[in-house]
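[Discussion] Sanity-checking designs against the backbone

I'm trying to build intuition for which residues belong where. Below is a structure token string of 492 positions. I'd appreciate it if someone posts a full sequence so I can compare it with mine line by line.
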């Protein structure tokens, strides 16, 4: 501990908490920084107006939390001396957030957990952190002293949380053991269904609790098995996806992102240059290849490229990340680039990206090392506009609504119904958890508008007995929006 007096560096730390029941958010540092559980913390910069503004900045950078949140001083600080002899002082704050808040982690942390206070205290690595947490609980108890029914300070099970794990392995098994679950369900993407039973057996052996396989593959981070599909299960392991920050969870869910370190950045950059990709480019990647983004950008810059990476809206966990329903990381930088480059495998994301932006879209497969030619966006859009034109005479509309937490746009569906009826159209809602073309056969409708996953209309329209439009396309069809410019149905 340093002596009283001046300090060389002021620091702040924030204990994010949610009420009813009380939970505390902890983040975990990656292996290179000790793999320990801590609160969000950081240095006070000269540009920060005060300690509270410094913490708001750190929380925005490390968790994506809105900077309008007001930290509450805990009147607790600690002085210490670093290995280099510098004197530091750390100030603790509490920050209340909604119970549905899912942090968007920076590279400073590789996992997070919402925990009951007792569990959080057990996981905190530093004794100073435990003291600060005790001070937070003391402040909250004082606030709740007039309410005998308040849950503050009461022992309670932690509600559903999202836990991020980069890949299969001991990190996942350790997190599952820490969770003390009774029964686990494993859900895999379609490409891994042949391996699902072996993977479940491996998890079962490592964790020591029953593990069942969800029979339906996972097509996205909003497509989890329901409690009725997996009875008795209190935790889900989902492979191949990152959490969607604004999607609430009904059970603790472990997102195994299946990060893939493969790919030679220099060789990929040479392939991009040889393929004629313009020098001002925006980079978008699937979650599996986000670890390659930084070295790939450096390799492109050595070859004279200017690379822009955007930060998306609240539906995206990471900068540069792509979701099939959301490409706001690209939209954020579209005006600063001449083309986009997708880093990943397959055509699913490049096609969605081509619908979302008007600049050319190339894609490079880091595993094959091959560059695909730019997608003909004009052809894609013309095909959709032709479909819209065929529905101009439709009088009876079916409005498709999904009850999945990550796809439910009931307010949008009701608004569309009201707008259609105001123009003299017949419009009815069709509600289910998953939209299936077989359930729509024989319906007395002329066309559908889909408010669930936008890719249902764009990729699977040919499977349906009637035309299926996106929300913007429906507005075109009933005369409330022009055919040009074409708008992608971004899901926020």
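Best answer:
Here's mine. Compare freely.
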């Amino acid at each position: 501990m340093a002596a009283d007096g001046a300090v060389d560096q002021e620091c702040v730390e924030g204990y994010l908490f949610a009420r009813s029941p009380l939970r505390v958010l902890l983040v975990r540092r990656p292996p290179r920084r000790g793999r320990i559980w801590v609160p969000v913390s950081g240095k006070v910069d000269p540009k920060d107006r005060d300690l509270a503004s410094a913490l708001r900045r750190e929380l925005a950078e490390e968790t994506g939390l809105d900077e309008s949140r007001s930290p509450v001083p805990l009147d607790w600080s600690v002085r210490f001396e670093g290995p280099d002899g510098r004197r530091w002082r750390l100030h603790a704050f509490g920050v209340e957030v909604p119970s549905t808040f899912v942090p968007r982690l920076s590279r400073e942390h590789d996992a997070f957990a919402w925990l009951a206070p007792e569990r959080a205290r057990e996981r905190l690595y530093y004794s100073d952190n435990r003291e600060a947490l005790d001070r937070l609980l003391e402040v909250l108890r004082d606030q709740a002293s007039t309410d005998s029914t308040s849950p503050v300070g009461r022992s309670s099970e932690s509600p559903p949380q999202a836990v991020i794990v980069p890949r299969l392995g001991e990190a996942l098994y350790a997190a599952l053991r820490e969770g003390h679950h009774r029964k686990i369900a494993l859900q895999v993407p379609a490409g891994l269904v042949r391996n699902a039973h072996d993977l479940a057996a491996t998890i079962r052996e490592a964790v020591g609790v029953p593990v069942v396989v969800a029979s339906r593959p996972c097509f996205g981070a909003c497509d989890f098995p329901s409690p009725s599909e997996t009875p008795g299960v209190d935790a889900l392991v989902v492979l191949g996806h990152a959490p969607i920050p604004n999607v609430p969870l009904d059970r603790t869910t472990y997102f195994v992102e299946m990060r893939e370190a493969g790919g030679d950045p220099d060789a990929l950059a040479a392939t991009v240059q040889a393929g004629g990709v313009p020098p001002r480019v925006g980079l978008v990647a699937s979650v599996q290849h986000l670890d390659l983004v930084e070295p790939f950008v450096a390799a492109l810059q050595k070859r004279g490229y200017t690379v822009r990476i955007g930060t998306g809206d609240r539906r995206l966990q990471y900068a540069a990340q792509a979701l099939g329903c959301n490409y706001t990381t690209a939209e954020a930088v579209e005006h600063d680039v001449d083309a986009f480059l997708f880093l990943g495998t397959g055509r699913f994301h490049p096609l969605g990206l081509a619908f979302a932006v008007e600049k050319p879209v190339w894609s490079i497969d880091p595993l094959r090392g091959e560059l695909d030619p730019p997608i003909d966006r004009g052809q894609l859009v013309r095909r959709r506009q032709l479909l819209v034109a065929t529905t101009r005479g439709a009088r009876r509309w079916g409005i498709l609504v999904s009850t999945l937490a990550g796809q439910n746009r009931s307010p949008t569906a009701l608004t569309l119904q009201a707008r259609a009826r105001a123009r003299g159209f017949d419009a009815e809602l069709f509600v289910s958890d998953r939209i299936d073309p077989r359930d729509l056969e024989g319906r007395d409708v002329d066309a559908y508008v889909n408010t669930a996953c936008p890719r249902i209309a764009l990729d699977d329209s040919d499977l349906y007995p009637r035309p299926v439009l996106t929300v913007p396309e429906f507005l075109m069809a009933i005369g409330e929006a022009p055919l040009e410019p074409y708008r992608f149905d971004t899901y926020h």
